[in-house]
Amino acid sequence: MNTSSDAERPKIGRREANRRATEEAILNAAETVFAEAGFGGATMQLIADLAGLPKANLHYYFASKEELYRRVVERIFQIWLEAAQAMDDAPGPAEGIGAYIDAKMEISRRYPNGSKVWASEVMHGAPVIQDYLETTLRDWTAGRAAVIQGWIDAGKMAPTDPQHLLYMLWAATQHYADFGHQIEVLNGGPLSDADWRAARESVKQIILRGIGVAI
């Protein structure tokens, strides 16, 4: 026989699922609005309208526009962090950097607006997330640079500056999100699945060959 608490568990699960779904809808809408209008041009009303929610509901989840904006930025960065795990656990640059490029290209395909929000924020001097750049991003970059330096020291790739290699990886992969419209114009339309595969392999081959890694 179920106790009252047992009977309530499915309802708690549904509430949590609904809460997460609503938060996801808000973040997706916020990414779109911030990407198109920037932080200054975006309003909580625009975001609420795009998410299909009353503005009061939006404020229930996020008290201010700045809080929501930081969450959007942190979400895309967290997704990028997860992609970098391929480098941390890989035996060498062919596997690590190759998998990182694969993951970053897929992120550019699936989360173009998040990447655009990050790029716009940084290009404007990071007025909202400067502290984030000086702490989380700086620490993350140092850690990945150390992994790359370890491969260099082991003779697994040509000597290069690890930080500049990371900058190149970011530029090459995030370009497909940040300048997606330009790519679509030059491509004669949106990239197909085959186009994305070809782009991913081209970026991977050019970078890995450039650092002396056999593929």
Describe, in short, the structure shown.
Keywords: DNA-binding. The protein has 215 residues and is an all-alpha fold.
Name the shape in a single word. Answer: globular
Q: Any low-confidence stretches, pLDDT <50, length ≥5? A: 1-5
Mean of residue pLDDT? 91
**Element pattern in H and E:** HHHHHHHHHH
Q: Tell me the fraction of residues in β-strands, as a range.
A: under 5%
Q: In this structure, how is the largest beta sheet organized? A: none
Approximately how much helix is present in the residues? over 70%
Question: What does this protein structure show overall?
Answer:
- With 215 residues, the protein is mainly α.
- It has 10 helices and no strands.
- It has helices at residues 4-41, 44-51, 55-61, 65-88, 93-110, 112-123, 130-153, 162-178, 180-187, 193-210.
- Helix 1 crosses helix 2 (44-51), helix 1 (4-41) packs across helix 6 and helix 5 (93-110) runs parallel beside helix 8 (162-178).
- The longest helix is centred in the N-terminal third of the chain and has 38 residues, at 4-41.
- The N and C termini lie far apart (61 Å).
- The model is unreliable at 1-5 (pLDDT under 50).
- Residues 43-62 bind DNA.
- Residues 20-80 form the HTH tetR-type domain.
- It comes from Paracoccus kondratievae.
- One of its GO terms (biological process) is negative regulation of DNA-templated transcription.
- It holds the Pfam family TetR_C_3.
